[in-house]
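Hi there,

I know you've been waiting on this one. I reran it after we fixed the sequence typo, so this is the corrected version. Both the input and the resulting structure follow.
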Amino acid sequence: MKKENKLVWTSIFTAVGASLCCITPVLALISGASGVASTFSWLDPLRPYLIGFTILVLGFAWYQKLIPITVGTKKEMDCDCETDVKPKFIQSKTFLGLVTGFAILMMAFPYYSSVFYPKTEKEMVLVEKANIQTINMDIKGMTCTGCEDHITYTVNQLEGILTINASYKQGNAEIEFDTSKTSIEEIEKAVNSTGYTVISIEPK
């Protein structure tokens, strides 16, 4: 039973670890400590291995939970000992099912993390064409869509931002803004405040 418990807690730990780099930006936004958003970005290369390990651990835990029911039937029938002892909740299939569900939610977190970010609807304003500028920022530290959402949300808080398209796959953000309302320096400062790092800026 102790071995089963260790497997369960190991699966929880690895499932959380697999998406920790994407969970941190959301926690940072909620707590207001946005500067720690990229703290666990170094875990991203390990994500496939952590997910695979979690699946293996949970699979083995379910194997141990289900197989004894069939394999040990004869032995149990030959035994006159008490067999109606109800297992503790932490040793039950229900608990293992809850842990499995939690692990799946954690591993899938990057795909639905955007629901935690408030929608920032921009008001339509008239902008002189001469004041519109577009820049491309190369950004270090983004590892998932949650990182994109975090940067998009933060930059959109600045006045004068017209559009922003952040991409963790390309490691950049293309931003269109009104130069009479904000500046490249302010945008760079906003991005850096999230914990990710602007490594280059190229006007388009």
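Quick highlight: The longest strand covers residues 132-140.

Best,
R. S.
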